[in-house]
Amino acid sequence: MSDVTGKHSPVEKFFRMCLFVFGGIVLLQLSLQMLAEIWPWLVGIAVLVGLVAGLLWWLWIRRQW
Q1: Which residue windows are transmembrane per the record (predicted)?
Q2: Gyration radius of the chain over CA positions
Q3: What's the CA gap between 1 and 3, in Å, rounded?
Q4: How far is CA 10 from CA 3, 17, 18, 54, in A?
Q5: Looking at residue 8, what is its pLDDT?
Q6: CA–CA separation, 13 vs 8, rounded Å?
Q7: Which pLDDT value is given to residue 15?
Q8: Considering the entire predicted model, what is its pTM?
């Protein structure tokens, strides 16, 4: 069984790490763009869920009296 990790030169390791960093930056940029597009929907859904939860809690507290 050959050891693959020990046979790469430092330049090759550096180049591969630069590609990983570049790929991470590209993926982060794409995810932030997608989040910016759906941000109003997420806030609207969160507000709606909060209102419904608050209403249910208020009704539950009111019924206990």
Answers
A1: 14-32, 38-60
A2: 25
A3: 7
A4: 16, 10, 12, 59
A5: 82
A6: 7
A7: 96
A8: 0.56
Q: How many domains does the chain have?
A: 1
| Buried-state track 15-33, b at ≥16 Cβ within 10 A, e below 16 | eeeeeeeeeeeeeeeeeee
Residues in the chain: 65
As a whole number of angstroms, the distance between CA 63 and CA 6 comes to 70
**Mind giving me the DSSP string for 6-31?**
GGS-HHHHHHHHHHHHHHHHHHHHHH
Structure tokens belonging to residue 34: 């997608």
Range of the domain at 34: 5-64
pLDDT tens over the chain, length 65 residues? 455 556 889 999 999 999 999 999 999 999 999 999 999 999 999 999 999 999 999 999 988 86
Both tokens of 39, joined, read 């941000």
